[in-house]
């Protein structure tokens, strides 16, 4: 069982990680329990740097969002749910998922940390609400997980944002820019050397096998 000091240190570490991801003070308070004034004092000594703006409201936003926003929202929540399924606490799972999302998706990132928080809250019924508005469903065609209204069942790929991205990829520059084709890394000298050795070894073995087979076939 954690001591009070350990809990406070953990809350401060989580608050710092949330602030680094661009979280608003309100979001940090929900995730850590820190009072707003304390969060401001500890994390935002420069009051001009405090994130501002209207807090996201994802249940209405998601269903009217464009394709790229829906795809990236689904990526964030899928990453978050995987960490939750691995028994990570909700706050740490959200931070880890958001960092991973930022690392794998092309900037500019369409999902802010506050939006990710709101999406997770309305998926699990946490922090902001007891009501679950979203479910992660699996596309029967591409097998990707995507967000849908709570209780939905994906019987086709009609609402899968990832299938739609694939369909539009060849003609939509915005989709191409958001998910660029990654070039294959050039092999190093050591890797090339190993490939040559393997090819020679394979060729030698094939030649020996062919000679042996020819000898056995002779009367």
Automatic annotation (TrEMBL):
It comes from the Bacteria. This is Flagellar transcriptional regulator FlhC.
């Amino acid at each position: 069982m954690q001591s009070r000091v350990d809990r406070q240190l953990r809350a401060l570490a989580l608050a710092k990680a949330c602030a680094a991801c661009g979280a608003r003070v309100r979001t940090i308070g929900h995730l850590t329990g820190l009072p707003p004034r304390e969060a401001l004092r500890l994390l935002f000594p420069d009051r001009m740097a405090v994130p501002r703006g209207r807090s996201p409201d994802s249940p209405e936003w998601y269903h009217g969002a464009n394709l790229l926003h829906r795809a990236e929202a689904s990526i964030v929540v899928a990453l978050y749910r995987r960490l939750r399924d691995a028994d990570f606490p909700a706050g740490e799972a959200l931070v880890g998922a958001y960092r991973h999302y930022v690392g794998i998706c092309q900037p500019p990132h369409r999902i802010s940390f506050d939006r990710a928080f709101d999406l997770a809250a309305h998926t699990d019924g946490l922090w902001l609400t007891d009501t679950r508005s979203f479910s992660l469903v699996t596309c029967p065609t591409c097998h990707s997980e995507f967000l849908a209204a709570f209780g939905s069942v994906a019987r086709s790929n009609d609402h899968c944002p990832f299938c739609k991205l694939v369909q539009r990829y060849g003609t939509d520059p915005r989709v191409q820019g958001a998910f660029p084709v990654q070039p294959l890394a050039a092999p190093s000298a050591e890797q090339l050397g190993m490939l040559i050795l393997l090819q020679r070894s394979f060729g030698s073995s094939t030649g020996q096998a062919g000679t042996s087979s020819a000898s056995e076939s002779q009367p």
